[in-house]
Amino acid sequence: MGMNKAARTEWWESLPTGIRDEIDVYVLQDSLLMAVRVITAIGLVPHGIGVGTAQLIANDRYLHYGDLIARKPESPLDLESLGCRAAGCDGRIVAVEAIWDGDTVHDWFVRLLAITSAPAGETHMATIYGSTAKSYLSEEEELHSRHPVAVAAERAGSALAAYLSVPFHFASPDTPDDEAPRWQP
Predict the structure, then answer these.
(1) Which of 130, 143, 158, 161 has the fewest other C-beta atoms within 10 Å?
(2) Mean pLDDT of residues grouped by 10 in the chain (185 residues)?
(3) Domain map (residue ranges) of the chain
């Protein structure tokens, strides 16, 4: 059972100042998971506040602070920047892959990865949130009802793969799916 906004506000205001300050510092640092961890640690046993409600409470604080939150920097999607990151990969890049992910703050987003062999692994190239896609894609761009993050991921990932002469894999470019099949050599 979740708490409505009024109940969340009442619970928040009942907290000691020190706890409220600790949670707010995590929010202001854009550390959602740490804020949720503190909220559940103090709220689960006495008040039944689980992760879902804790995320709503933290989101209330995000809305309260708005532009004051020190957001993590957006990933660059230009080919020169991605190529520079790829040059730093440990191992030989054998593919570039786009995979869906999501959370309560950003909704759906796409992670762009370089898949390597010798040693086998993956290296993070970029995280494409809605705001990242918006600044990367032109205003006039026709998305054909596709998710902007998918369009941006496909464009940046394909360009990087072509630059590296490796395949580009995006198992579910039209529908957010964080369980879509991964790239196989």
Answers:
(1) 143
(2) 87 96 94 93 92 94 91 89 94 96 81 94 93 83 80 96 98 92 89
(3) 5-68, 79-169
